[in-house]
Amino acid sequence: MKVLTDTGLVFRRYLAILLHNPWWVAIEVIQPLLYLLLFAPLLKSIAGVPGFPRGGAYNVFVPGLLIQLGLFSSSGVGFGLIAELRSGVVERLRVTPISRLALLLGRACRDVVTIVFQAVVLVLLSLPFGLTLTWQGLLLVLGLLVLIGLLFSSLAYAVALALKSEDSYAALTYTATLPLLLLSGVLLPLSLAPAWLRAIAAANPLSYAVTAARAIFLNDLGQASVVTGVLIMAVLAVLASAVAARAFGRAVA
Amino acid sequence: MTTNIIETHALRRVFKSRGGDVEAVAGVDLAVAQGEIFGFLGPNGAGKTTTLRLLATLLSPTGGAATVAGHDLRREPDQVRRRIGYVGQAGGSDPEVSGRSELLFQARLYGSSGKEAAARATELLVLMELESAADRATKTYSGGMKRRLDIALGLVHRPPLLFLDEPTTGLDPQARARMWTEISGLRAGGTTVFLTTHYLEEADALCDRLAIIDHGRIVASGTPNELKRQIAGDLVTIGVGANHESTLELLRSQPFVREASAGDEVLRLYVDRGEAAMPAILRLLDSAGVELKTIALSRPSLDDVFLRQTGHSLREEAA
Predict the structure, then answer these.
(1) Which CATH number fits domain B234-299: 2.60.40.10, 3.30.70.100, 2.40.170.20, 3.30.930.10?
(2) β-pairing, B217-222 with B71-72?
(3) Would you say the pTM of this structure is higher than 0.90?
(4) From the list B56, B81, B95, which residue is nearest A97 (CB)?
(5) Over the stretch B73-86, which tens digit does the pLDDT of each residue have?
(6) Which of B91, B101, B109 is nearest residue A98 as measured by Cβ atoms?
(7) Which chain B residues touch A95 with a CB distance below 8 Å?
(8) Does residue B85 contact residue B161 with C-beta atoms inside 8 Å?
(9) Which chain B residues touch A20 with a CB distance below 8 Å?
């Protein structure tokens, strides 16, 4: 199928460009790694308080950290696209008969592959701290990250195409990702939150992904929260990629 | 049956903005024949680039109709895309990627196999004399080299029609002359070229036909010579010793003289075609026994055309 061939071509191009400067992939892992080293130990002492989920500090914290990695890694992808708008690359590709969906998916697949790679590195580095995970659990959580990567990199591209300027793009993504993160229970579980905060968090789709990831790390793979989290992310990922593909079809530098 | 590779009828594009709607292209009728170099001339903001983007499927028209390379622009944009090449003002290569990689990728996008793409890339690198820089990142290219790569990218799939948006803007005179040679070479190979420019010399030297656009409307079109003739014809200035008045009357009655006036010591004649009028004037004055002191022919420049059609000079705009 043409969309798949085109997506493959675009994916290979952007993967090659990324591998030209592979240090960025590593640099993005440093931030969650610092959380793991300098923040997670604090949780150890409160892992016993009432309301803290079972499973121990690292099995509670690392799933959230992976979701955060997915969010941060994909929210930065718009910068490269804005540079490409300026250098005329986007316009050049839009004049070719290439599928508009492939223009998005090829890029987004590259981003998803990056996130999955970073997530595997982070999980491996967490094992010595006492993280426990089954193979099925790892695969399932990576699948969830694929959806999150597709969702947020699509959104990032759509925003970049709309704003066309690094400054406003940076301002918007930083402002948008912080509440999304705080209201998802990444740093501390929302089970510790007062009722009003939990009510607001219930409106944040990312909180369902975090809940699902935690259940997966407890090996509760069949739990309803896992299904809910995966479904919500899947639906939003499809919607976001449709919106972003449309934006690629209409982009004007 | 038409041989026009581009035909537009009342093509319009309106941009919504906070201050109200802006009609960037306000009903453009164009006919570009197969195999010609067609120049689109106008100041910045006149609607040149917007028209080009409409024709290259980058923008959808608000109104009107257009056929590009044999296909309806609005109904079959994908068919149009297969048959056109487009080189935007910004170019289109990634600074971190090598020229060869860009050409390979571009060829694959049009459906070439890896082997075909490699052969085509090499062919174009040779044609544009970029072989020695082929595997370097394009950020190391000079302005002229980058432009040649941009054009090579537009030619990968051998399109019958190539759009060039200000192909020589920002190039030094040498690189510009080189680019003119490349573009003329494309016509020799049968490619139709549609280019925008705000350089009058470029339009004059390179283009078979021109259209002048201002405020989203075509204000004049034709060959460079036709356009120059349209405004007032060529100017013949004659210095005669005596018989000022009678000579003026004699010349004014000639069918090829459009306008005649007397100045200090000289007569000014506006004629359709100066090169044909000069011998006729000489014969006429000789047989009438008028002593001729000086005679000079001057042609209006495209800048005069532009000034006449738009009310402002393009040179001021370009500066």
Answers:
(1) 3.30.70.100
(2) unpaired
(3) no
(4) B81
(5) 999 999 999 999 99
(6) B109
(7) 56-58, 81, 84-86
(8) yes
(9) 96
CATH superfamily of B4-228: P-loop containing nucleotide triphosphate hydrolases (3.40.50.300)
CA–centroid distance for B18 within its chain = 33
Reported residue count of chain A is 253
Residue A251 banded pLDDT, cuts 50, 70, 90: low
**Which chain A residues have any C-beta within 8 angstroms of a chain B C-beta?**
6, 9, 13, 16-17, 20-21, 84, 86-89, 91-98, 252-253
Closest to A142 measured CA to CA, from A117, A124, A105, A111: A117
Interface confidence, given as ipTM, is: 0.89
B113: its two tokens: 């196999």
Domain map (residue ranges) of chain B: 4-228, 234-299
Residue B124 to residue B286: CA distance in whole angstroms: 60
Residues of B in Cβ contact (< 8 Å) with A9: 105, 108-109
Residues in B closer than 8 angstroms to A13, CB to CB, are 105
The predicted-structure confidence for A53-105, as pLDDT tens digits, reads as follows 888 889 999 999 999 999 999 999 999 999 999 999 999 999 999 999 999 99
Rounded to a whole number, what is the distance in Å from the CA of A83 to chain B's nearest CA?
A: 9
